Amino acid sequence: MEGQPWSRAGKQGRSQLERGVSARQLLSGARGMEQSWLQGVRTKVLPVHGELSPSATMVGLKPPEVPPTAAMKFVSAGMAGCIADLCTFPLDTAKVRLQIQGEVRIPRTISSVEYRGVLGTLSTMVRTEGARSLYSGLAAGLQRQMSFASIRIGLYDSVKQLYTPKGAENTGMATRLLAGCTTGAVAVACAQPTDVVKVRFQASGALSDSARRYSGTVDAYRTIAREEGVRGLWRGTLPNIARNAIINCGELVTYDLLKDALLRAQLMTDNIPCHFVAAFGAGFCATVVASPVDVVKTRYMNASPGQYRNALSCLLALLMQEGPAGLYKGFVPSFLRLGSWNVVMFVSYEQLQRTMVLARPALA
After folding, report:
1. Is the peptide bond before 107 cis (omega within 30 degrees of 0)?
2. Which residues lie below 8 Å from residue 185, measured CB to CB, with a gap of 6+?
3. DSSP 3-state percent helix, strand, coil across the chain (nearest 5)
4. What is the pTM of this model?
5. Is residue 73 within 8 Å of residue 154, measured between CB atoms?
6. Looking at the predicted structure, is the pLDDT value of residue 38 above 80?
7. Mean pLDDT of the 106-110 span
8. Who's near 352: CB < 8 A, 6+ residues apart?
9. Could you report the per-residue pLDDT of 151-179, keeping only the tens digit for each?
10. How high is the pLDDT of residue 40?
11. Pick from 249, 270, 242: which is nearest to 351 by CA?
C-alpha cells in the first residue's frame, strides 16, 4: 500500500516527461520545416549576399544564385548587340557620313551633299536618299554583331577569370584591361570582313544606283575578294584592332568598374538605373579615347585602292588636310551612338542572360 503513491507519482512523472519530449520534438520539427522553407525561398528568389560578383548579377529582376554559363553569355551578347544595332544604326550611319565628309578621294570628285550635325545629317539623308538610307548596311551590321559582340563582350568574364591569379579576392585593373584588349583583338580578327562591308554600304548611300559598287551584302563580299583579294576583306585590321582594344577597355572595363563602385558604395542597387549610369559613363569614356582611331579606321576602310599606303599615311593625310580637330570629326553622333548603344546593349545583355538561366531548368 505504501508503494502505490510512489507508483502513481512515477507514472505521472513519466507521462509529463513524455509530453515534454513530444513538445520539444514538435517544436524542433516546426523549426526545421521553417528553415527548409526559408532556404527554398532563398534558393529560388534571394541570393546570399556576397556569393555573386557584381559582374555576374542581373538587373531588373533579382538574380538567380546560379550564374550564366559562358555559352549563355556568348549567345546573349550577340543577340543584345543586334538589338542595340537595330535601335542605334541611323546614328552610326550619320557618324560615318560626317567622318568621311571632306575626304580627298582618288579620283577626285565633288560632292554636292553637305552634312551639318547629327540631326542635319539624318534629315539630309532622308530628304535626298529616303528613309531606307538610314539602315544602309544593316545586314552586314547584324552579321558583325553576332560574331563581334559575342566574342568581345560574351567572353570578357571568362577571359578575365582566366587572367585572374588563383586565390585573388578582387580582379585588378591590369587584369581587366588585359581581358578587354584580348577579347577586342580576337573579335576584330574574326569579324573584320563584316565591318568593311558595313562601312562601305553606309558611306556609299549617297551615290546613285548606277554608281554604287555593290548590289547587296553577298555581292560586296564576293566583289571585294575578287577585286582586292582576300586581304581586302581584312582592310584596316590593325587600326580596327587598336580601335576596338581601346573601345573594349573604355566600354567593358569602365562599365565593370563603375557598376562595381556603385554597388560596393551602396549608392545604387543592382537594377536598371545602376545599369544605365554605368553604361552611359562607359559609352562616353569609350568615345573620348577611341574617336581618333575610329575616324582613321573609317576613312581607310572606305578608301579606294591605292589612295593610302597604310593606316599611318591615312592619319598623316587627315592631319595635313584638317588638323587635329579632324580626329574628332563626328564626335557627337559617335557619343550619341555609343552611349545609347551601351545602354540598350547592356540592359538587353543582362536580361537575356537571366532569361536563359531561368529557362534552363524548364528545358532540362
Report:
1. yes
2. 241, 244, 245
3. 75, 0, 25
4. 0.67
5. yes
6. no
7. 44
8. 75, 76, 79, 80
9. 989 999 899 989 988 877 778 888 888 99
10. 45
11. 270
